[in-house]
Amino acid sequence: MTEYTSLEKIRLKKIEELRKEGVEPYPTRAERTHTSAQAIAAFETAEKAAPEGQPPVEVKATLTGRIRAARAMGKLTFAHIEDGDGRIQLFLRMNELGQERVDWFNKMLDIGDFIQASGVMFRTHTGEATLHVHDFKLLAKAVSPLPAAKDEVTESGETVRHAALEDPELRARQRYADLAVNPEVRETFRKRAGIIHALREFLDDHGFLEVETPILQPIYGGAAAKPFTTHHNQLKQDLFLRISFELYLKRLLVGNLERVYELGRDFRNEGVSFKHNPEFTQLEFYWAYADYLKVMELTEQMVSDACLKVTGGMKIIYQGRELDFTPPWRRLAMCDGILETSGIDIAKHPTAKSLFKAIAVKGKTPNPQATRGKLIDFLLSEFLEPTLVQPTFLYDYPRDISPLAKSKPGDPLTVERFEGYVAGFELCNAFTELNDPLDQEQRFIEMGRDYTDDEEEKHPMDEDYLRAMRYGMPPCGGFGMGVDRLAMLLTDKHSIREVLLFPHLRETEE
Question: Among 123, 141, 299, 356, whose CB has the most other CB atoms within 10 angstroms?
């Protein structure tokens, strides 16, 4: 049973009193003619249209919002309400409303309550566009006070500087309160929505078809990750939450849908960090008759387009550094980048044993049982990745950590794959897709042989996907991007939790 604080008990008592008076604290209907921003804009338009020296045409408005501040000053009360567009001041005077009504406002309404107020717009002596209230009603009573924001007017009428709701853990756990008291957080999620809209618009304009594929899958695949497992009771079947859309989207290429994309949720049973959440938003597209070079060009166009639409330019500041998304982005072969940053030429180490020794000479200690591909990945993360600050395409990857990518002509150990890096972390991943069903089957067999069951790079054999490939899959390029990471960049947030409305968190004791 809920244990209420002393202040909450006072508010609960008010709810009882309201109902005794015949006032419903949570009425079913609300009316609104303007948002706060619309009312201010309409009033400013009327002011500009008024002849010099003459009052503007009367602007009547009915507004709704949450009370964020209130101060009684004798026969006058000033308050601020906040809606989705911003704040606006209310002015209540006993001459119009009567003393009983104004006293009721001051006594029965609290900071955090939602109200409806009707009246006429005017400008105060301090120059603030304000609603002169002629009528009001309660829309929803707040039982719990919101965490205080900075420079807040308290319920006693004093202005006190508080510590705002700033603790990252508490903000993530109580996102509803975070959104309510921190306007900049609401702006972050508006930008996130703008990013998703821009990505969709770009792909739609380039002839891609948005599709939906299963979230519950009998065989997981398409990425190097561990899945979440669930069970269908009626079918008596274990299923997996998808880790990628890839294998289903490529089946659609077999069916002559030549350009497809999906923007939705993936689930990976992996660690939580500043750039990882078990549930995240992914964008993948597959493009028939394209290769990874064409996909590179489309990627930099798409991301820079989203940057321009959301931020107004191609250059942004991220964590104190200027990043320039203007195409073309830097292209860097993985082997060259590793050589430049670690001093190791991976071409001279064709076996895992040889490469391990070279890494050990550098004072690093990777897993001695790692494959050559995983050792190269170790070099990437230890030496090269932190240097990739400006948007960069790192290309040509080892075959044994890229089981779904096509090999480079004349180089069976290397595949046509690139990853896009920004600010020292991976943003996207793309291939010239493998479309040879015999080669694909052999790679599935190799992955099953060379990797243990708990290794993320192991891909289970997907017989239905191989069946689809045997019908003929056109040459194609594929792409995947974590939308949350792009949102981090374009909103200047260090942690992925800052761009997820409800990130996954450890349980706490109440």
Answer: 299
